[in-house]
Amino acid sequence: xxxxxxxxxxxxxxxxxxxxxxxxxxxxxxxxxxxxxxxxxxxxxxxxxxxxxxxxxxxxxxxxxxxxxxxxxxxxxxxxxxxxxxxxxxxxxxxxxxxxxxxxxxxxxxxxxxxxxxxxxxxxxxxxxxxxxxxxxxxx
Length: 140
Hints:
By secondary structure, the chain is of the alpha+beta class. It is built from three helices and five strands, in the order E-E-E-E-H-E-H-H.
């Protein structure tokens, strides 16, 4: 079990790893080793995630989530396969942790009477200033 938050933990069987060839430096055996990791997690079918967490995760994941609700994370930052595996898992955990935090509820408020009066007074002053910028006539 992978502990993500105190209430969310994912079974390791829900994660699927594929090893692919990584771009970038690697020396002579770069075309023979598969050091990059492609981590797949089916968020839609996961029992650990509630529907609200899944919907937030869908918006946070963006194009990393397929239409079927599978999150695909590709890690190829390091040359070692183990470090790439750990990096992909850390990125998935961070993504789910961000989705687990519910957004703050916005309470609608009304401006106070003093704030309304200040706004109208400011508008009146600004209006008088602009009225004074009219064309100058010969009579003045």
